[in-house]
Structure formats: C-alpha cells, structure tokens
From TrEMBL:
Sequence intervals crossing the membrane: none
Similarity annotation: Belongs to the ubiquitin-activating E1 family.
Designated name of the protein: Ubiquitin-like 1-activating enzyme E1A
Molecular function terms, GO-annotated: SUMO activating enzyme activity
One Gene Ontology CC term in the entry: cytoplasm
GO biological-process terms attached to the record: protein sumoylation
Species this protein is from: Pisolithus tinctorius Marx 270
Entry keyword Repressor: no
Entry keyword annotation includes Nucleus: yes
Pathway the protein takes part in: Protein modification; protein sumoylation
Keyword set, alphabetical order: Nucleus, Ubl conjugation pathway
Compartment annotation: Nucleus
InterPro entries: ThiF/MoeB/HesA, ThiF_NAD_FAD-bd, Ubiquitin-activating_enz, UBQ/SUMO-activ_enz_E1-like
Primary location group: nucleus
Length: 343
C-alpha cells in the first residue's frame, strides 16, 4: 500500500495551527463574515469525504475554497464516461484512471493553502482501518452511498464522537442527512429587545441515521405535513430500501415502478403520514424516479453539494443552526424541505 493509501496522521490531534497574515488576507471576506475564531476552527479542521461523484465534487470545491486545513478523500473507483457530466474535476483523458488520482491536482489548484490527501484502497472502509481513519479526522462526509453503509459509518463516528454528514442525488431528487451528536452554536436571539442584535449559545441533540429512519409523522397537522413534502422524502427512503434488496443497485427503467411503488407505500403507511395529505405515493413521481435515479444531473448536484458544503462549514464555524436533520431537494419543483427525523 502506498503512502497515499495510509491513514492520515494528525487531523483532530496536535497543536492548533494559527492563521498567518497571508492567510488572513486570503480569507479576509470570510473572517469579516463569521469572525477569526470561526475561520481558525476551519483552518484546523480535517474533513474526510468518501466517494467522489457529482455531489462530492461540488461540496469539495466549496469547503476547499473556504479554507479548511486538510481534505482526506477516499474512493477506489475509476473515472467513467458517465462521470464527465457532473464531475468537473475530470477530463476525457482521465477515463480509466482512479478518480482520486485524476482529481487531486485540480482540487489542490483551487486553494494551495489546503492539504489534500487521497486514498484509493477499498480496504480502508473495513472495520479496523475505518476506525483509525475516523479517529484521525474531525468530520466525516459520505456521499452517494447505500443506506446500510451510511448507518455503519455513522455508528463508527458516534463511537469516536465525530460529526457525520451524508448527501447524494438520485436523478432529480437529492438529500442531506447530518448527525452532529450534541452541537453547540451561536445563533441570533430573535426575542431580544434593544438597539443592536444579540446572540445566544444554543444546543441541538441529534439522532443517528438508524433512529432517524424510525421517524413517525403522527401529530402533524395537514398543513405541516404538506409543507414537508413527504412524497419526495419517501421516494428517497424507498430508493434506499430498494438498494438494500438489490445489492446496492438503483432502478434504471420504468419497469421497476411497481416494485418501488409498493416499497414506498408500505413505508408511508408504517410512518403514519397523514393519509388526507398523501394517501398513496404518486405513481408519476415513482415512475420518474425509476427513469432517472441512476443518472446524475449537474444542476441537482450543484444545489445539493453546495448546501452540503454550506452546512459543513456552519457546523465547523459553530455559527448559525445547521440542518436538523434531513434535507430533501425535489428537482421536479425546484424546492427543498428540512424534516426533523426523530429529533
């Protein structure tokens, strides 16, 4: 195994690196926005991103430009022709190369102040290697992976007290999930009276993914249920269940519509979603999902990856409330909603 496939050293450990005058000049606008202390936290953060597809590409661009300290990127796949659409780190001549090798120099060129380490060995996600990898970083983000894998890595993050993000797209649908454990942050005090704005320290307790998936919708009014767009939520959750049944594969034709519709309707009933709002899953939505889920669309990846990066930076800066805790983007309508799943 080469050096590029070894677990990174340092990361969350060691003495904090102080921002230099040159770095302060580069990040001047951000420091004015959220303060030197928040920028310092980002400067010392090591972020692990697993899988390099369209969503991760957009997220990496934003967090690297924002000035994190180190990016550790794990992906054992090779670049394919399909990756050239949403993966702007890749070129035609990269087809057949390892993704992380093709992308590394282009990621580094975005911000030479950020250290980029790549790993292409699939065994890094096995038990002992994964434990060591998670311990060596400050935050973990897994993109475009099946639900069982997300749950497993989320549980490892919980054991070692590391914040966890997941994000990805299925055609026109996209999602972000986060488990920030107990997260403290500074938020505006909207109840404050007086001349100037005031801020207060606030805490949120998050749920792991396996608990979030047990969320029940009973107790919500018709209006509240409708605003949360449960059809898009359960289209994604049904796709995760489909992947579990099909060894990680997603539907790639309308022939899968009856099976996915059956899965989605069963989940909808179990979750006690208000039947006056959504008695059954819309068959046209499921048909659209089956037709497009296996493809990546650059605009959807840009929206989801951009919001994913923004939320990671919020969590690191500890200013403003991050997502709590499941965000869904519906490209059919161009709308997004946040659902508090079992929080």
């Amino acid at each position: 195994m080469s050096f590029s496939d070894t677990v990174p050293e340092g990361g969350a450990k060691g003495n904090p690196v102080q921002i230099t005058e040159d770095e302060a000049a580069v990040y001047d606008r951000q420091i004015r926005l959220w303060g030197l202390e928040a920028q310092q936290r980002m400067r010392n953060a090591t972020i692990l991103i697993v899988r390099l597809r369209g969503t991760a590409t957009e997220a990496i661009k934003n967090i690297v430009l924002a000035g994190i300290g180190k990016l550790v990127l794990v992906d054992s796949d090779e670049v394919t022709d399909e990756d050239l659409g949403a993966g702007f780190f890749f070129r035609e001549e990269d087809v057949g190369k390892k993704k992380v090798e093709a992308a590394k120099a282009r990621i580094e060129s975005l911000n030479p102040l950020v250290t980029v380490q790549t790993m292409k060995h699939h065994t890094l996600l096995e038990r002992e290697s994964l434990d060591a990898l998670v311990m060596s970083v400050d935050l973990v983000c897994v993109t475009d992976w099946h639900c069982e894998g997300l749950i497993r890595i989320n549980e490892v993050c919980r054991r070692f007290g590391k914040p966890f993000y997941a994000g990805g797209t299925f055609g026109l649908l996209g999602y972000i999930f986060c488990d920030l454990l107990k997260h403290d942050y500074i938020a505006p005090d909207r109840s404050a009276q007086g001349d100037g704005p005031r801020s207060v320290k606030t805490s949120q307790i998050y749920s792991p993914l396996h608990m979030a998936l047990r969320h029940r919708w009973s107790g919500l009014t018709k209006r509240q249920t409708k605003e949360l767009n449960p059809a898009a939520v359960y289209a994604i959750l049904a796709l995760w269940e489909y992947q579990k049944m099909k060894d990680g594969k997603v539907p790639n034709s309308v022939d899968a519509t009856p099976e996915l519709l059956s899965i989605a309707n069963a989940m909808l009933a179990e979750a006690e979603v208000n039947s006056q709002v959504l008695p059954t899953m819309p068959s046209e939505l499921i048909e659209s999902v089956c037709r497009s889920a296996s493809h990546e669309f650059s605009p959807v990846c840009a929206v989801v990856g951009g919001l994913l990066a923004q939320d990671i930076l919020k969590a690191l800066a500890a200013r403003e409330a991050p997502i709590a805790n499941f965000f869904v983007f519906d490209g059919n309508s161009g709308s997004g909603t946040v659902v508090r799943m079992n929080m």
